[in-house]
Each structure stands twice: as C-alpha cells, then as structure tokens.
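Reopening this one. Same input as before:
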Amino acid sequence: MPLLTRTFIKTGMVCLALALVLGILLALGVTNGLFPVYIHLLVFGWLTQLIFGVIFWMFPKYSVKKPRGSEALGWWTYALLNIGLLLRAVAEPIQSTRANPLSGWMLVLSAILQFLSGLLFVVNSWGRVKEK
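Same output, byte for byte:
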C-alpha cells in the first residue's frame, strides 16, 4: 500500500474518531456551533479521504512509468484538503458564535482549498478510469 494511501486512510481514521467524540459532545449539548465541523469531519475528513486513498491505490494503472498518476498531485490533493478542513474546523465555530470578517474569509479560503483539492484529485485520477 503506497505511503500516500496510508496517509489518507490514517488521517481519515483520526477524523472519524474526532467526529465521533464531537458527535457525543453535540448530543450532550456541551458544544455550540460545531455541527458543521462534525459534518465536515465525517464527510471530508473521513469519507473523502478514505475514498481518495483507496482510489489512488487500487484504480487501474495510468501507465507503466506512472502507475498511479502524479504522486506530487496526490500529495497536493492531501495537503489542500486537510488545510481546508483544519481552517474550517477553526473558523466555523467562531463564525457561528462571534461572526467577523476574518473567520468569514477563513471559511471562504477553506472552501477554495477543498475545491482545489477535489479538482486535483479528478485531474490525477481521470486517466485511470478506463475500460482495460
């Protein structure tokens, strides 16, 4: 299993564990403004990273020289996704309790980073979706 795949999957597992703890705190009413963070940890932190990691590993070979496409693009995908997720996890509670321009722009930046991550993933994986 490639290092990038292991990194995606293990980071996803950490996000799942954090989301589960956060879900318990939300159910107990201990937290305020963290429901969007909970959803993002589950969807982008856990599911998306698991999917990206497994696809990088198991999809058909791109070519003999580059069986998994560009590893550099894969790492950029990982970095942008997780920086965006971290920014969202910090900015979302601030924006929901004490809205201000800085946390608003942090949310915009996090969305842009996550969008770019998805775009890089598609660019890097597209050529591996083939008949044979």
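So the earlier flakiness isn't reproducible anymore. For the record, The chain has one domain: 3-128.
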